[in-house]
Amino acid sequence: MRPLPVVLLCLASLLLPFHAAASDAAARDARLGVREAERQRALALNERDIELLRRLMGGNYRHVETNGRLRSKTEFLQALARDEYRIRNYGLEDMEVEVVNEDVAIVTGTWRAARLDLGAAQPLRGRYVRVWTRQPEGWRISLHQGTEIKTAAAQPAKSDSRGPH
Q: What's the pLDDT score for residue 23?
């Protein structure tokens, strides 16, 4: 074997741990950045800070509500401004950030809130999935999907379709 390729191969193998460490550091930084963006999003929802939410959302943002309705960025922000979302005290119970690559992260977790129905606050809990993409101005959310977790008491009773026994 020629000495130059052997030397290059040895040098390359020495650099592998440095590349892995750099990748780990980049993923850790991405997780921290997305967690901070999630914190800002929750704060903006509670304070009805439309401008902060607008900055946190990418231009192609899609919002899938717990009832399955799909809204664009503009539709979601307009509905929030009109107080169609009667959600208060929104908070994240847990969050897992998976960094797909240096520019994409998927966040999953559970949320809790109170929905104002007929003047009374009804507790809500749900799961969420959000996709964040890194843009030149920072992390921006491109997709939100929320699913309400219904308690056993809130679910309709199962009917027996077999008829009389």
A: 78
Whole-prediction pTM: 0.76
Give residues with Cβ within 8 angstroms of 33, minimum separation 6: 134, 138, 139
Cβ–Cβ < 8 Å for 97, 34: yes
CATH no. for 3-151: 3.10.450.50
CA neighbours closer than 13 Å in the CB half-sphere of residue 149: 11
Provide the pLDDT confidence category of residue 148 given band limits of 50, 70 and 90. Answer: very high
CA distance 40 to 139: 11
Cβ count within 10 A of residue 132? 27
Helix, strand or coil, per DSSP, at residue 77: helix
